[in-house]
Amino acid sequence: MNIRQLEAFLLVAELRNFTRAAGLLGTTQPAVSFQIKALEEDLQVTLLERNEKKVILSEAGRLLYPEVKQMLRHYRKIRAVTEELRGLKAGHLVLGATDVPGECLLPALIGGFREHYPGVRITLRVGNSAAVSRWLQEREIDLGVLGLAAELEGIQFHPWLEDQLAFIVPPWHPRAGQEIPLEELTREPFIIREDGSGARQALENKLAQYNLVMHDFPAVLELGSSQSIIRAVRSGLGVGAVSLRAAEEFLQAGKIKAITVSGLEIRHYFYLAWPRKTANGLTANTFRHFILDRDTCSRLLKREGSL
């Protein structure tokens, strides 16, 4: 039994998917399967039951799962202490982020960080705000980036970068590129993020100023990512409310168009979040200070066209 086998088991158990787990671990699906098989042979039990459609935990897997989470939590604490002794010549940083920072912002910043610290291995997990909050509370990640500053015991939140919501339509929409009154927007099918996302909360807070709720729209489609909203808009399913950072590439290519809604400019922050009392370790603290530096962030995001 080794740490890589336990990490592979934990991710497959959570994602119920070997391919996605392999992507997060930076390896191949056969390599993950080999790690799980080796762990099962070592323990002489079946941990995962597989068929063509899904992966489920066996009884032994369900019993082992919380123990593995605890073991890896202790392992990361030990690694944090040894990293401080060695400096940043090596280390493992586990990040968690919602889809916009995870897909549009952090890749460029991780690349810039690794230019300075090439020996640091970084894992980035992407989920919704609820998932990132849970990972923080259970100490499965060292640093989170999300759109909501929730009240979580023992978790510190810090406003980081500002985001703006864009209202988007397909290029053939009769009002593409124009400004429309809010009352006209309420006659359109509306495509928004799922309940609990930072973008959704910012949108609902702004609409509440005009005594509007989602039931005032003829139809509302809730989707779990910015990219799925953009695809739905391109398919003509309605007007989408999505992060401008996520939509920028499609707007520039003319695949979608923006509309301006009178009185409905919506901005909100992405937040950095980390455990308040638990020592994060030198790697996590160094990365946090790195991306909190405004000049560094601006330079790297402009270089990648993300700002």
Features of this protein?
alpha/beta; Arc Repressor Mutant, subunit A; two-stranded antiparallel sheet; D-Maltodextrin-Binding Protein, domain 2; 307 residues; globular; ten-stranded mixed sheet
Q: What this model shows, in words?
A:
α8 links the parallel β8 (190-193) and β9. Strands 3, 4, 5, 6, 7, 8, 9, 10, 11 and 12 form a ten-stranded mixed β-sheet that branches. Strands 1-2 form a two-stranded antiparallel ribbon. It has 307 residues and is α/β, with parallel strands linked by helices. The chain contains twelve helices and twelve strands. α1 (3-15) crosses α2 (18-25). The chain has helices spanning 3-15, 18-25, 29-43, 59-86, 99-116, 129-137, 182-185, 198-208, 226-234, 244-252, 282-292, 294-303, and strands at 48-50, 55-57, 91-97, 120-126, 143-146, 155-169, 179-180, 190-193, 220-223, 239-243, 257-261, 267-275. The longest helix is centred in the N-terminal third of the chain and has 28 residues, at 59-86. Among the domains are: 1-86, Winged helix-like DNA-binding domain superfamily/Winged helix DNA-binding domain (Arc Repressor Mutant, subunit A), CATH 1.10.10.10; 161-268, D-Maltodextrin-Binding Protein, domain 2. Helices cover 47% and strands 22% of the residues.
Number of helices: 12
Secondary-structure arrangement, i.e. CATH architecture of the domain at 161-268: 3-Layer(aba) Sandwich
Helix and strand element order? HHHEEHEHEHEEEHEHEHEHEEHH
Rg, alpha carbons = 22 Å
* Gross morphology: globular
Mean pLDDT: 88
Low-pLDDT segments: none
Write down how many β-strands occur, each being a DSSP E stretch of 2 or more residues.
12
- Given helix and strand content, the structural type is alpha/beta
Q: Provide the CATH top-level class of the domain at 161-268.
A: Alpha Beta
Please summarize the sheet with the most strands.
10 strands, mixed
What is the distance, rounded to the nearest whole angstrom, between the alpha carbons of the first and last residues? 44 Å
Helix fraction, binned, reads 40-55%
Q: What is the strand content?
A: 15-25%
CATH fold field value of the domain at 161-268:
D-Maltodextrin-Binding Protein, domain 2
Organism: Desulfofundulus thermobenzoicus
GO molecular function, one term: transcription cis-regulatory region binding
Protein name: LysR family transcriptional regulator
Keywords: DNA-binding, Transcription, Transcription regulation
